[in-house]
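We modelled the chain as a single entity of 866 amino acids. Its sequence is:
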Amino acid sequence: ELFLTELNRSLKTELKVESIQLSLLADFPDASINLKGAQLPGATKGSGMLLEADNLALKFGTMSVFSQKFVIKSIEIDDGALFVFIDKNGKSSADIALSSEEQAETSGSDFALELKQASLNDIELIYIDEQKETEVAVRIEDAEIAGEFSSKQFAMTSHASMYAGFVDMGGERFMAGTALDYKANIDVNLETGKYLFKEVELEVEDNTFKVDGEVVSMSKHTDFGLKLRSEDCSLSSVISLLPASYKEQIGDFDSQGTFYLNADVDGRYSARQNPSIDFQFGLKNGKINSPRLDYPIKDVSFDAVFENGKSGYNKDAVFEIANFKGMLRKEPLELSVKATNLDDLDINFNFSGNIPLTAVYGLAGEDFVTDGDGMIRFTDLNLSGPYKYMVDPNQVYRVKAKGEMEFEGAMLNLKGKKVYIEEGKLRMDGNNFTVENVHFTGVDNDITLDGTAKNLIPVLLSDSINSKDAKLEFDLALKAKNIDFDRLFELSPPEEEVETTAAEGEVDGVKESENFVNFLDGTFQAQVDKFNYREIDGRDFQGKVSVENNVVTVQNLGFNTMKGDIRMDAKAYLNEKPWMETKVYCDQIDASEFFRQCENFGQEYLTDKKLKGKLDAKIKVKAYWDEDGNFLQNKLYTIADMDFSNGELNDFDLLEDLSSFVKMKDLMAIKFTNTKGQFGIRKGKFYIPTMFIQSNALNLSLSGSHAFEGDMNYLIKVNAGQILWNKFKRHNPKQKPKKAKKKGFWNMYFNVTGDLDDYDYKSGKRNYNTTIATLERSFSKIRSDINLEFGEKALVEPEELKDEGASSGEESTPESIEEPLGSTNSNKGFGSRITNILEKPAPKDEVEDEEIPDEEYDPELDVEIN
């Protein structure tokens, strides 16, 4: 306790410990006091703990116990953490010792510090200097410093093994994950603040550097005069000193041959001054290797230099790689780079050479690209000018840019699939970029691109959030003999998994990157002879796609498919919460092909093998997604007007329940004159305001709604006259569809509710009318929207479906046939089967009609009547 009290008298802050142990014999003739669980606050306000250690041992002469004059000779710190903080005013949290004058004023002090040795073992060191914007994280495995520290002038020896987590300076991170060792002999003069470096060796990873010179440290500045020279050095030693962002790209590159590295630091370092730095390295007649290069770059020679001038400021700094020459698979490479004024960077970049893809394909990522062949030739590529103009689309015209890139039989093997760019050129002239006959083949695709673009340089150099709002202004033409979208999608690189932090719009502390479409602004004219996506096949695809302000517009896109024609217009708004609006026009689409190529809409009841006929439809769709890309089904909005003609339904077993009314053979081959309907999807429900079906087996009208969750409410009106007549006549396999009858006959009314697994139905006109009135508001909205979008009037019930004797909307139904279907709640009932028939294809097949023809059916007269 006396010792701890005396020690604290020499400190500006108070050292606290959990326990104290005195040892007189373990280090005899020295004694030691071991402070367990030591905690020492920093000297500046708010700096936290300067030191935390499991054990802090202070050694002194054993006889001091009897003289009560404690002279500390050495300090050993084990298993702890050291946090040194320097604030913006230059005050250090490590400045904890009182001056000799302050100690002398402390009465009764019997404590003196005459250190000769200090050692650290397993210590985490954090150093932050707000004034110089520097942060260092180092793990000290072991370190030792020895010298007559109580003297004004002495020789100091030191050695250490450390592991640098990172060194952050000026917004860049250096030496991330780097092993460091040093051995040093330094002459120290505390009166003059001079440190003379002698026999100093610094090891960075496996590379050794010798350091000599001197440093003079004064209260407000430090003067440097140091020289660093390489010994057994390589390219990897230079890369290890670079910022982490560069190491990720070139960290696995190394060299063989005569590599040299020299650095001189000369001048004053203070709050207003920087020393001059002259950093030189190069390679003579060597090789550059990387695991990602199948062949090394041979016969490499270059000289590189970084110097910040006599002023020591970035405005006078120059970095240059001059006369880089090498051979890659016997193909020459030449490169030069010069960057001046790091405060307002000015770049001059030149490159010429032939790049064999068989050697460099691994640079694209060997998990994705497994092989390469052919050549890319770069001719007189030059980019020069201020960097601030290169990234600014409004100033990029001031940048000098020139060069050409040509493909010659280029091939890349992507995920085991070979793709080729057999020919084509890319030319750059100022801000103008030209694409000439770039021919892409492979994986059943044959595509050629031509066109022009602007602002390519600002887009390529843009930051992750596109802060300069760079847009690639393009006008491209695509011609293709064949496009297989399925095979193209297989070529996409794997998505990188990233974790989103709590901060909105950030991933791992970095703002999320902009969507690729946000960089585009222009038009894309496509002409495709043949294409396919999944089961959908099409021909003569022509259309125009434009992108502006994150809106993708498809205009007058048309193609032949499913033995008919489709035309569409669309807009996709790719903002934070994307949404899309599409209009589709179908003309004489083959129903069987429509169901087959749409994979029967995921159901097995009504399939392409059971349908024949032609479909005309007009469809509008509005679809919405949330910010995470999830489809918002309840916001889906669709309207459709459809006409299904010359149709035939074969072997549809769901109609077996009608066998009590219609001959079974007729139900196995139902022929349609017309099926006309209008449909809508809004607020999570599928609506049928009106649908008419006229066939050889029966005629009916259908209305109702069906929620996505499964609840349905359908209304069915069946023309009983034709059903009863067909019951008593002989089956005719060549029978044509019949028009609806009314003279002397009646209609039947049904309301089907529930879901497909558990439903009920009621018959009768009164219930039918009551239910349809509750749905009329939604029906009216859909009819109004169809009229507004397509100019199609609402479907009205044909006179032929009205009851005998009915006038002014009055109808009658005989009690004898009001409930002809048998038991209620039958899951094989007529209502459920109609629901299954209509539910799947309805959103895709739509057009409208006002009347069902009164004449006998004739294919030549089967036209839409308005």
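As a brief sanity check on the tokenised model: Confidence is low (pLDDT under 50) at residues 496-513, 740-745, 805-866. The two ends are 107 Å apart (CA to CA).
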